[in-house]
């Protein structure tokens, strides 16, 4: 990872690997942050450097203005990413909101720069051309939105129980959901890179058909693996290790 990348507020690399032969950019879920991927670099081999995207409005960027729609996010993030995509091959991994952002970033880069990741890993979200949330999260009351967070899982209980902290972070969570809920898939760029899709069988927003639909969005190879578990199935070590096996094997 370059010193410039390390210094950028947009990227976090908990385990820099200057000699790595490829780089994996990880996109966090709605309401999450780059810290979700802190351990990944340690768990993946030395030839893969993990760089987590840190969007504004959370963690180290808590008091920065948030994005509420996808297109400005893509345009801004692409400008930050581009200088760091040319020195070695790169792949993308995104969970939930991160799946949308990483997929559309891949299309944006192919359309505007003629480059794309060597592999796109998506998790916890169905093929975006097949899905529309009919009960948008971002327009709900604070109480209802918090209840949805409880049902989705993944939010630490100590945060849910802390009223002051929830007041601080809820606007960012709502903004992230607005990015997702107002996103509309548009026909256009077809990716060439392989796509691997992951999900939990108990995740209510997913169906097998919806996950298989990711294969329609690339002219490259497609693979899918579903796990026992809900939306945050990947918080379990064994299932996360299974994801790592896919990431490692694609580089062989």
Unreliable residue stretches: none
Number of helical runs? 9
- Residue-averaged pLDDT: 92
Describe the sheet with the most strands: 7 strands, mixed
CATH architecture designation:
3-Layer(aba) Sandwich
Give the proportion of residues in helices. Answer: 25-40%
Task: List the strand order in the largest sheet.
Answer: 1-3-2-4-5-6-7
User: CATH class, anyone?
Assistant: Alpha Beta
Number of domains: 1
Secondary-structure element order, as H and E?
HEEHEHEHEHHHEHEH
- Tertiary shape: globular
Q: How many runs of DSSP E, i.e. beta strands?
A: 7
What gap, in angstroms, lies between the N and C termini?
A: 21 Å
The CATH homologous superfamily corresponds to Alpha/Beta hydrolase fold, catalytic domain
Rg, Å, rounded: 17 Å
**Proportion of strand residues:** 5-15%
- Given helix and strand content, the structural type is alpha/beta
Under CATH, the topology can be stated as Rossmann fold
Family: Belongs to the thioesterase family.
InterPro entries: AB_hydrolase_fold, TEII, Thioesterase
Domain Thioesterase: 23-248
Protein name: Thioesterase domain-containing protein
């Amino acid at each position: 990872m370059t010193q410039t990348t390390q210094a950028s507020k947009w990227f976090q690399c908990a385990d820099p690997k200057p000699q790595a032969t490829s780089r994996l950019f990880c996109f966090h879920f709605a309401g999450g942050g780059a810290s979700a991927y802190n351990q990944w670099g340690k768990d993946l081999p030395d030839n893969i450097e993990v760089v987590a995207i840190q969007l504004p409005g959370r963690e180290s960027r808590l008091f920065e203005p948030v994005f509420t729609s996808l297109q400005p996010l893509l345009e801004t993030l692409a400008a930050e990413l581009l200088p760091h995509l040319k020195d070695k091959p790169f792949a993308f991994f995104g969970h939930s909101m991160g799946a949308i952002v990483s997929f559309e970033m891949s299309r944006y880069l192919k359309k505007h720069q003629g480059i794309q990741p060597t592999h796109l890993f998506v998790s916890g979200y169905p093929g975006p051309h097949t899905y529309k949330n009919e009960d948008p999260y971002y327009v709900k009351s604070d109480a209802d939105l918090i209840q949805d967070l409880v049902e989705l899982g993944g939010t630490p209980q100590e945060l849910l129980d802390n009223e002051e902290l929830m007041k601080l972070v809820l606007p960012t969570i709502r903004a992230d959901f607005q990015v997702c809920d107002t996103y509309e898939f548009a026909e256009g760029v077809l990716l060439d890179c392989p796509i691997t899709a992951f999900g939990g069988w108990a995740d209510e927003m997913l169906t097998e058909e919806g996950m298989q639909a990711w294969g329609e969005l690339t002219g490259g190879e497609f693979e899918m693996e579903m796990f026992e578990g809900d939306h945050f199935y990947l918080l379990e070590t064994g299932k996360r290790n299974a994801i790592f096996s896919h990431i490692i094997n694609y580089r062989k």
